[in-house]
Amino acid sequence: MELAEKAKKRNFILALVFTIGLVAGIPCIVLGAVNMDDNKGFVALLVFGIVGTVLGFYGSPLLWTRLATVNQELTLVKAVTQEHLHTVADLAQRLSVNGKTASATLNNCIRKGYLVGFIREGDQLVLNENRALAPTTYAVQCPYCGASLTVQKGDSAKCPYCGSVLTAPKKGN
Fold first, then answer.
1. Own/partner long-range contacts of 31-34 (Cβ < 8 Å, ≥24 apart)
2. Is 172 exposed, middle or buried (0-12, 13-18, 19+ CB in 10 A)?
3. Could you give the angle at which helices 41-81 and 88-95 cross, rounded to 10 degrees?
């Protein structure tokens, strides 16, 4: 959750700076243009005003929209870690969005590392317990008496009926 909170803070600061650049850039353009003939220092003010206005005009709406997305991701992370909501349907209801949007947001949160220790299993979110893989077992039939039994890969077993030694099939068999 710490990464999501840092992303929210970073996006908020950028959106605020670009918005201030838009608001402050317009008077800087006017002051720089009016006084440009009197002093060369006002040329820098004019350039700053133009750059601030352009960046603010184009960048601030994008950054405020991005901040809304980060807020939604943070809300999802809190819903999973604090409210223990672990299905896409529950998360969609909590976020007031459809299931497809909730699923995409959930995938983004996992991809960005906001939800450490969780994995997706269909529409469920489960703890990643890093379970060891179970050994591969094969159902074999005794070639001597026809009895069925199971053998683990790489092991051999003794038929309980006729006493023959049976081995698991080799690779892919």
1. none
2. exposed
3. 130
Residue 9, SS3 per DSSP? helix
Which neighbouring-strand residues pair with 141?
Answer: 148
The residue extents of the domains of the chain are 2-127, 137-167
User: Measured between alpha carbons, how far is 117 from 120 in angstroms, rounded to an integer?
Assistant: 11
Q: Identify residue 31 by its one-letter amino acid code.
A: L
Question: Residue ranges of the alpha helices (H) in the chain?
Answer: 2-34, 41-81, 88-95, 99-111
Query: How many residues in the chain?
Result: 173
Tens-level pLDDT at each residue, the chain (173 residues): 788 899 999 999 999 999 999 999 999 999 888 887 767 778 888 999 999 999 999 999 999 999 999 999 999 999 999 999 999 999 999 999 999 999 999 999 999 999 888 888 888 988 887 656 667 777 888 888 888 888 877 777 888 888 888 777 665 54
First to last CA, the chain: 47
Q: Which residues pair with 166 in a beta bridge?
A: 157
The structural architecture, per CATH, of the domain 2-127 is: Orthogonal Bundle (1.10)
